[in-house]
């Protein structure tokens, strides 16, 4: 039984990677710039608004707010987060919180809009956690790093590749 589940997990992850690749335009590989490690410019908090789950993935609509560290700059975004891989069971609600790291401190309004990609893993039984580390946005120069693990409710197990698209409100 364990071998069967392990095989199913590997097969789903392989399928999810190729499905994610087919939906995501290829970006040129870039070497990280050692002289520009990035500046934390604020936090992005997203609430799950609606969604659907499949055994090999899920899609959720998000309502997001970006806040600068001072709290003086607040921007609204809508988004869609798609996960490809093992995704068993429904998630009925959730909040994702990321630290936003950018190449410079003074981003223009709407700079977080765009596509992000990365990996995710989590488990929920009643209340649970999930972590997503994503890279994208402005010329693939913005990183969304978990400030806290995603809090969610439902009965769910996930592991796979995640894509996020943000649109400025």
How many E strands?
Answer: 6
Radius of gyration: 16 Å
User: Which regions have little confidence, pLDDT < 50, spanning 5+ residues?
Assistant: 1-36
Oligomer description? single chain
Taken as a percent bin, the fraction of beta residues is over 45%
Count of domain modules: 1
Give the % helix.
Answer: 10-25%
Encode the helix/strand succession as letters: HEEEEEE
General shape: globular
Q: Numbering strands along the chain, what is their spatial order in the largest sheet?
A: 1-2-3-6-4
Terminal CA distance? 48 Å
Largest sheet: 5 strands, antiparallel, barrel
In DSSP terms (H or I, runs of 4 or more residues), the helix count works out at 1
Helix-and-strand structural type: mainly beta
Q: Could you report the average pLDDT, rounded to the nearest whole number?
A: 71
Describe this structure in words.
The chain has a five-stranded antiparallel β-barrel with strand order 1-2-3-6-4. Helix content is 13%, strand content 62%. β1 and β2 (57-67) form a beta hairpin. It has 169 residues and is mostly beta strands. The longest helix is centred in the first third of the chain and has 22 residues, at 2-23. It has one domain. It is globular and about 40 Å long. It contains one helix and six strands, in the order αββββββ. This is DUF992 domain-containing protein. Keywords: Signal. Pfam families: DUF992.
């Amino acid at each position: 039984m364990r071998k069967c589940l392990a095989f199913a997990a590997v097969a789903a992850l392989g399928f999810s990677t190729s499905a994610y690749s087919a939906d995501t335009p290829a970006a040129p590989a870039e070497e990280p710039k050692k002289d520009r490690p990035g500046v934390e410019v604020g936090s992005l908090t997203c609430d799950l608004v609606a969604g659907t789950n499949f055994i090999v993935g899920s899609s959720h609509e998000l309502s997001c707010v970006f806040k600068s560290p001072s709290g003086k700059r607040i921007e609204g975004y809508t988004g869609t987060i798609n996960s490809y891989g093992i995704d068993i069971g429904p998630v009925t609600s959730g909040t994702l919180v990321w630290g936003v790291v950018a190449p410079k401190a003074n981003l223009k309004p709407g700079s977080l809009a765009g596509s992000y990609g990365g990996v995710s893993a989590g488990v929920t039984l009643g209340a649970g956690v999930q972590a997503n580390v994503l890279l994208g946005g402005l010329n693939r120069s913005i990183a969304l790093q978990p400030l806290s693990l995603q809090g969610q409710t439902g009965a769910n197990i996930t592991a796979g590749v995640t894509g996020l698209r943000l649109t400025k409100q």
